[in-house]
């Protein structure tokens, strides 16, 4: 194994190259790393790529130049961050990918970087679909899908996971699939419009909770009853979504936790101690429904 | 020397040098070869689009499409990367040229306002990039020689991309300073109607600047694909503003008619240095700036540079 | 001038008519009240911001900071009405949560205006400063967090209806009429067009150009602030990172499609409203008819180019 | 006789349905200096622009050196051998003098690059022909209008054209430069270059031109040898009235504007005015009911003096009193509020708001008085504008026409209207009759006289000696930014004035 080793120290200079800070999920993730820095003995070097993969690589470069000990990297995209991973490796810096991975054909866990900590976006979409298939009562499901930012990997993966699973059930048809840019306002606008064109919609699948909430607002404004005549399923597990579930407006949200800090600290310590790290440290995403929403809302962001 | 720095555009050079000195003194490894070469590599793209933008702005126009055109070019280049640099580079460049020609056609042929014409191209280029790439980033072929362009360096420090960008800068500079075409570019910006009545080939110059800007964006896209291993349909957001800011900080008037190519390069590098400094500052751990504070600081920095420039440029302009 | 503008308006009206006819033919449920309400509610914010943008463009400037100003105002409102003081006295709290953000927005405009007319900074760069920083300030104010709330009286601004149509639609309409009148009939309007048409000549004719420009940026910023409040009200949530994102482009596009010229000197207010409606309706048509996102971009580009070409005045 | 060089026949052109030319023709022989005369708005500039491809004609034919041609752009016209100085200064103020002279025809090195050394040499050559001494590396815009005008002429004259067109080239030149220009024209003529020369200074026409074509309301109404014409014939042709009528009305309207007004109270008193802009030391008093002329060579600082009095340029020293009270005038707005008006010499950049209508341009300075609580009283506005359009004889389709569509002379009248409308106590007129036809010039002069008789104080800056000597009660002579002499009418002669301007302080 030619991965760089990590000495056991009290203090580490740790780089966290965030991709962007324009949504609550990312902000919660950053905060989680900042909080962990205090408890885990990190000097945290934090950068923000503002949504640009190229800038993220440049950010990683500047961290390498500053001589960090460890790199935590949520790669903005699968391919463009490979140079960053490779350069960190060349500089002898162990790298952990967080929440998204890189192209496995080029860079591999255990060889080029230590491990990928995260969940599986495709699986998240699939689980949302599974819940829907199991819990949908009617005999014809007319689905509107609100996609994330066009071209982004979570949007592509969450779409694939859901669409494939739903295709297996003849009751369902997706009548419209449209980007709401992961944002509440945009999700609402798109839903308002689609509702006019497809009055028979009775299922909404949103790639994140913000858009789901926007869709619920649109449904209510149009006089529909989300939760009763329209089933809303989504991904993330935000506080607002859990509240909507408690209020009976939303069916399910598949957790996609942003709280990576503790896991990161833990994994890094194990690695320093010489333990073998799995190439994919899976984050166990829970699923929030009416049954458990109330008990978890306190820990949601 | 005055010519080299760009007449009366001292402020931007002063600011650039001061920041570099500041960074070198304050941070370890700021002036290391590693940091320098990654800085130059990343900013080669911005130098390119800023120079393209500079010529456009000299005519009094604007090109909002540079960012998405670069993204489109990166997709095209990445898709053709298995055929090697020899195919992918010209292909990406051609994509940029095509977009530039489209802009030129709308602006010079149909007489659409540059703002709207290039806004349309901005949207269309993004749409085409997403379409071509099927909404995904397009991995390059790492086995081909395509990535050498973006990854390799001349000597230890100077990336090929920056070298090429500088060659383009020199070409642009010579065109502006020493050719009839370049002078016509400036004349259009000064007074388009007068330039036409003076019998200058205004249409040719107008077409030239948009095609040139498109070509610069296309080349930047090739650098993007080659240096970052992927065609990225979503990259390039906000590049047009970065380029405009670089041009203006370099002392070029948005109303056209005046401007300096070298000072524009300094302007582009200046913004790169600020990003780099902020990253290093965060690493010192004294204050950990959240991303939000960083944007506040960038704005303040821009304010300072602009006010400095206003102060320094005023007496010069009046004399 | 009236004749020329009227001809432009006619072109735009024709384009709108074509779009409406097309929709009647292909878009399901197009002719119903809810469709109208949806479009009105969605166009209102763009229209309100575009009105201010039209004035700024008429002065020969441009304002990139409108989106950030929306974010600042939008972030501030919930902070105010969620504060203990406002919870204690809801009436005053509500008033403050509307007025204070508008005042702060006005200060953003003042900042732009002073940079431009006192320091002589070029508008695109002067407003780029707040474009970059303003959103950062809004995020700092909220620590980047999404603020969600339940406040029916504030939310009315975004979800209420008057005569079956959304409140914000009426606001946009009233503002359009007021501004159209202002441009045509007041000294401010005349000064604005003079300052944008030929600044030096205006100064020499006694036009207080600096004051007029500052006022214009303040008006644009207050209108943007209002739009920010409306967005927050509709969503019952304020996300500083997203409020008003890319709004500057929409607003500029609406103004130019409506007949404004970036060189300044023209303020076709009614045209701007129609321009905003045109852009809104175009988006609606594409979404409602299931055009894919990437095709939407391409089609939008073509339509914008054609629309501008059809009613192109002189070059901007 | 051989083929004429140029033959334009039956040219028609309408702008948005309003005809500008209805049947214009023009014949130019090789090597002749030919003038095109007509009132403001007669269509002179339009005809030129059609010839040089700026506008497309609606009908008619153009033959050039015997062949029918259809030029589509100024570039094509230049390539065919037609060089033009348009009425609106068409140069690029931000660029250097060198560039403005060589642009489009730059000397090249073997590599195809501009040879700046040769360009500078050519520029100096051209400038020295006109006796101008300036820094050719400076932006053209930093020089006064007259210099810019000379540069434009120099550029056109250096193009080796077969036909050189000059649309009001002397409007901002003083007598000395006009002489230099004529020298150049004679030189060109000797080389076989034909010249079309448009000017509202009729004396110039008789001095330099061989033939004339008279245009009235877009129609060619006559063409003749200059030698066969009298001034009266020319005017009569332009105005479409009989020579008798004109003779009876007299030639200049400023003449004999009452006896010397030395007793009126001083409206404006300036002592030792200096600005950062080359105004060194100006003493000036203008009394109510008095016209004070300001004379001086090009660059003597007359315009700067006006700018200082009007609050455009901040004073570095000196003081001013208005109506006997010390006044600090720091902005045009303040000046206007104090009852001062200023008609600038540079109509295009300091006068018109091109997109606004005639009405809106005319009332711009008056607005504060036309509005209540910021709302304009449009009915009163229209009434006032109506009145001025009639009084000044402004030729416009309607008062809501954009001012940029008006001919130059008519734009000037609108601007004069702007200042008369505020009923100023003190009115500064910088070249007020520039580009105004003889008929209108008289009307304008009459209006000025009327205002003076009503007690208005006027500072008249003019490069026309006739206007100064006949019109002004007193003439202040400037040199290098200083007032060096004050001559009192009646009794000032042209020689005296020239002497004072050149020698300074002698009188
Ligand atoms: N671009 C235009 N649009 C509309 N009308 C125009 C335009 N250009 C000229 N005109 C009109 O055509 C007529 C002729 O104008 P032109 O400029 O040729 O007059 P001119 O004889 O040169 O007058 P002057 O002596 O005042 O320069 C005028 O009535 C003018 O208003
Ligand atoms: N022959 C010249 N060579 C160089 N500079 C000149 C020349 N003539 C004028 N200038 C410039 O113009 C300045 C003054 O111009 P100004 O406009 O005040 O003159 P003026 O007397 O008003 O003449 P006019 O009324 O013709 O414009 C001078 O200080 C100088 O910079
Ligand atoms: Mg004319
Ligand atoms: Mg003068």
TrEMBL record, chain B:
Pfam families: BPD_transp_2. Keywords: Cell membrane, Membrane, Transmembrane, Transmembrane helix. It is a multi-pass membrane protein. The chain crosses the membrane at residues 7-25, 45-73, 85-107, 157-176, 207-230, 261-279, 291-310. The keyword Secreted does not apply. Its main location: membrane. It is found in: Cell membrane. InterPro entries: ABC_transp_permease (IPR001851). This is ABC transporter permease. It comes from Paracoccus mangrovi.
UniProtKB/TrEMBL annotation, chain C:
It is found in: Cell membrane. It is a multi-pass membrane protein. InterPro entries: ABC_transp_permease. The chain crosses the membrane at residues 12-31, 37-58, 70-88, 94-116, 123-142, 162-183, 214-237, 243-262, 269-288, 294-310. Keywords: Cell membrane, Membrane, Transmembrane, Transmembrane helix. Its main location: membrane. It holds the Pfam family BPD_transp_2. This is ABC transporter permease. It comes from Paracoccus mangrovi.
From TrEMBL, chain D:
It comes from the Bacteria. This is Sugar ABC transporter ATP-binding protein. SUPFAM superfamilies: P-loop containing nucleoside triphosphate hydrolases. The keyword Disulfide bond does not apply. It comes from Paracoccus mangrovi. Pfam families: ABC_tran. Keywords: ATP-binding, Nucleotide-binding, Repeat, Sugar transport, Transport. The keyword RNA-binding does not apply. Residues 6-242, 262-505 form the ABC transporter domain. Signal peptide: none annotated. GO terms for molecular function: ATP binding. The lineage of its organism: Bacteria, Pseudomonadati, Pseudomonadota, Alphaproteobacteria, Rhodobacterales. PANTHER family: CARBOHYDRATE TRANSPORT ATP-BINDING PROTEIN MG119-RELATED, GALACTOFURANOSE TRANSPORTER ATP-BINDING PROTEIN YTFR. InterPro entries: AAA+_ATPase, ABC_carbohydrate_import_ATPase, ABC_transporter-like_ATP-bd, ABC_transporter-like_CS, P-loop_NTPase.
């Amino acid at each position: 194994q030619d991965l760089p080793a990590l000495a056991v120290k009290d203090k580490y200079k740790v780089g966290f190259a965030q991709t962007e800070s324009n949504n609550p999920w990312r902000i919660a993730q950053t905060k989680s790393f900042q909080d962990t820095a205090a408890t885990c003995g990190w000097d945290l070097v934090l950068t923000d790529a503002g949504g640009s993969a190229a800038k993220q690589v440049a950010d990683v470069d500047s961290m390498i130049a500053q001589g960090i000990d460890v790199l935590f990297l949520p790669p903005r995209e699968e391919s463009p961050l490979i140079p960053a991973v490779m350069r960190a490796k060349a500089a002898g810096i162990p790298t952990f990918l967080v929440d998204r991975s890189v192209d496995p054909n080029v860079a591999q866990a255990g060889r080029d970087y230590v491990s990928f900590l995260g969940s599986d976006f495709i699986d998240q979409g699939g689980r949302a679909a599974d819940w829907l298939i199991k819990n949908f009562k009617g005999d014809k499901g007319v689905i509107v899908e609100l996609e994330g930012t066009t071209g982004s990997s979570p949007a592509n993966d969450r779409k694939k996971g859901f669409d494939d699973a739903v295709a297996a059930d003849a009751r369902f048809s997706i009548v419209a699939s449209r980007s709401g840019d992961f944002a509440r306002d945009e999700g609402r606008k798109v839903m308002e419009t689609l509702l006019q064109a497809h009055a028979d919609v009775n299922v909404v699948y949103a790639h994140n909770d913000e858009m789901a909430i926007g869709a619920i607002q649109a449904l209510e404004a149009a006089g529909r009853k989300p939760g009763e005549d329209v089933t809303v399923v989504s991904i993330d597990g935000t506080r607002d979504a859990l509240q909507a579930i408690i209020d009976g407006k939303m069916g399910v949200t598949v957790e996609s936790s942003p709280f990576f800090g503790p896991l990161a600290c833990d994994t890094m310590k194990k690695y320093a101690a010489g333990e073998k790290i799995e190439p994919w440290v899976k984050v166990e995403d829970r699923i929030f429904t009416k049954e458990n929403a109330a008990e978890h809302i306190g820990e949601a962001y | 020397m005055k010519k080299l720095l760009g007449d009366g555009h001292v402020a931007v050079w002063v600011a650039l040098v001061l920041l570099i000195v500041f960074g070198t003194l304050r941070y370890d490894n700021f002036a290391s070869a590693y940091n320098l070469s990654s800085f130059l590599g990343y900013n080669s793209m911005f130098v390119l689009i800023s120079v393209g933008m500079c010529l456009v702005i000299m005519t009094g126009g604007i090109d909002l499409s540079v960012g998405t055109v670069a993204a489109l070019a990166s997709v095209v280049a990445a898709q053709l990367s298995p055929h090697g640099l020899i195919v992918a580079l010209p292909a990406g460049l051609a994509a940029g040229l095509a977009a530039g020609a489209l802009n030129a056609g709308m602006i010079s042929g149909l007489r659409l306002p540059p703002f709207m014409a290039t806004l349309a191209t901005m949207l269309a280029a993004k749409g085409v990039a997403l379409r071509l790439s099927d909404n995904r980033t397009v991995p390059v072929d790492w086995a081909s020689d395509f990535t050498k362009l973006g990854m390799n360096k001349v000597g230890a420090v100077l990336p090929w991309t920056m070298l090429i960008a500088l060659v383009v800068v020199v070409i642009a500079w010579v065109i502006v300073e020493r050719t009839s075409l370049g002078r016509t570019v400036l004349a259009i910006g000064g007074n388009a109607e007068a330039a036409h009545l003076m019998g200058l080939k205004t249409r040719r110059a107008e077409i030239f600047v948009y095609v040139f800007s498109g070509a610069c964006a296309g080349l930047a896209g090739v650098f993007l694909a080659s240096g970052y291993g992927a065609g990225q349909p979503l990259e390039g957001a906000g590049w047009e503003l970065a380029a405009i800011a670089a041009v203006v900080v370099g002392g070029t008037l948005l109303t056209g008619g005046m401007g300096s190519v070298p000072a524009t390069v300094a302007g582009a590098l200046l913004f790169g240095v600020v990003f780099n400094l902020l990253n290093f500052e965060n690493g010192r751990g004294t204050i950990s700036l959240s991303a939000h504070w960083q944007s506040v600081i960038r704005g303040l920095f821009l304010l300072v540079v602009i006010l400095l420039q206003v102060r320094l440029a005023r007496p010069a302009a009046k004399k | 001038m009236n004749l020329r503008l009227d001809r432009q308006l006619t072109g735009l009206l024709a384009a709108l008519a074509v779009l409406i006819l097309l929709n009647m033919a292909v878009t399901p449920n197009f002719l119903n009240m809810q469709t109208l309400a949806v479009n009105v509610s969605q166009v209102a914010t763009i229209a309100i911001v575009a009105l201010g943008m039209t004035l700024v463009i008429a002065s020969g400037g441009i304002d990139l900071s409108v989106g950030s100003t929306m974010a600042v105002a939008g972030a501030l409102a919930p902070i105010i009405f969620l504060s203990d003081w406002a919870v204690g006295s809801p009436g005053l709290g509500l008033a403050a949560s509307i007025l204070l953000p508008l005042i702060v927005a006005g200060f953003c405009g003042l900042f732009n205006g002073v940079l431009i007319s006192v320091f002589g900074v070029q508008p695109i760069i002067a407003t780029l400063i707040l474009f970059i920083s303003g959103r950062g300030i809004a995020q700092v104010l909220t620590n980047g967090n999404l603020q969600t709330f339940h406040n029916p009286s504030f939310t009315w601004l975004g979800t209420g209806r008057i005569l079956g149509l959304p409140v914000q639609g009426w606001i946009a309409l009233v503002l359009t009429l007021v501004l159209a009148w202002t441009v045509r009939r007041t000294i401010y309007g005349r000064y604005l067009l003079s300052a944008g048409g030929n600044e030096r000549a205006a100064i020499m004719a006694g036009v207080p150009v600096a004051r007029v420009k500052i006022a214009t940026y303040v008006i644009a910023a207050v209108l943007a602030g209002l739009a920010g409040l409306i967005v927050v009200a509709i969503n019952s949530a304020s996300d500083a990172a997203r409020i008003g994102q890319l709004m500057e482009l929409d607003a500029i596009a609406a103004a130019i499609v409506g007949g404004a010229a970036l060189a300044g000197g023209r303020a076709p207010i009614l045209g701007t409203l129609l321009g905003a409606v045109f852009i809104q309706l175009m988006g609606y048509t594409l979404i409602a008819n299931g055009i894919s996102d990437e095709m939407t971009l391409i089609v939008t580009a073509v339509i914008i180019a054609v629309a501008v070409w059809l009613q192109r005045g002189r070059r901007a | 006789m051989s083929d004429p060089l140029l033959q334009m026949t039956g040219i028609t052109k309408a702008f948005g349905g309003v005809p500008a030319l209805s049947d214009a023709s023009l014949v130019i022989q090789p090597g002749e200096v030919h003038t095109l005369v007509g009132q403001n708005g007669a269509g002179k500039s339009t005809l030129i622009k059609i010839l040089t491809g700026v506008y497309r004609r609606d009908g008619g034919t153009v033959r050039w050196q015997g062949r029918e041609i259809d030029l589509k752009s100024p570039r094509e016209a230049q390539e065919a051998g037609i060089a033009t100085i348009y009425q609106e200064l068409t140069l690029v103020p931000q660029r250097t003098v060198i560039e403005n002279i060589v642009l489009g025809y730059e000397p090249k090195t073997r590599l195809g690059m501009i040879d700046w050394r040769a360009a500078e040499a050519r520029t100096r050559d051209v400038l020295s022909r006109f006796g101008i001494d300036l820094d050719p590396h400076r932006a053209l815009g930093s020089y006064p209008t007259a210099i810019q005008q000379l540069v434009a002429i120099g550029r056109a004259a250096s193009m080796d054209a077969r036909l050189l067109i000059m649309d009001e080239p002397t409007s901002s030149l003083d007598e000395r430069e006009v002489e230099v220009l004529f020298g150049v024209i004679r030189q060109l003529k000797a080389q076989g270059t034909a010249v079309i020369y448009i000017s509202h200074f009729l004396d110039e026409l008789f001095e330099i031109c061989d033939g004339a074509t008279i245009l009235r309301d877009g129609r060619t109404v006559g063409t003749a040898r200059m030698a066969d014409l009298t001034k009266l014939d020319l005017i009569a042709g332009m105005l479409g009235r009989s020579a008798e009528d004109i003779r009876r009305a007299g030639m200049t309207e400023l003449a004999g504007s009452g006896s010397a007004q030395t007793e009126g109270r001083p409206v404006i008193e300036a002592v030792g005015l200096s600005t950062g802009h080359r105004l060194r030391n100006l003493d000036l008093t203008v009394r109510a009911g008095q016209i004070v002329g300001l004379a001086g060579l090009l660059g003597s600082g007359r315009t700067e003096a006006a700018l200082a009095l009007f609050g455009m340029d901040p004073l570095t020293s000196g003081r001013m009193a208005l109506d006997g009270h010390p006044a600090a005038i720091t902005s045009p707005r303040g000046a206007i509020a104090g009852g001062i008006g200023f008609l600038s010499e540079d109509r295009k950049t300091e006068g018109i708001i091109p997109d606004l209508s005639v009405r809106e341009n005319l009332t711009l300075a008056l607005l504060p008085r036309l509005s209540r609580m910021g709302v304009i009283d449009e009915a009163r506005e229209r009434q006032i504008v109506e009145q001025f359009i009639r009084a000044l004889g402004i030729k416009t389709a309607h008062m809501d026409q954009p001012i940029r569509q008006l001919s130059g002379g008519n734009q000037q009248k609108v601007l004069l209207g702007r200042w008369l409308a505020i009923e100023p106590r003190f009115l500064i007129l910088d070249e007020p009759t520039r580009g105004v036809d003889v008929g209108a010039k008289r009307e304008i002069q009459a209006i000025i006289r009327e205002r003076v008789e009503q007690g208005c104080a006027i500072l008249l800056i003019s490069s026309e000696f006739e206007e100064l000597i006949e019109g002004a009660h007193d003439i202040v002579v400037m040199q290098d930014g200083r007032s060096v002499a004050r001559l009192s009418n009646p009794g000032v002669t042209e020689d005296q004035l020239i002497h004072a301007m050149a020698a300074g302080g002698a009188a």
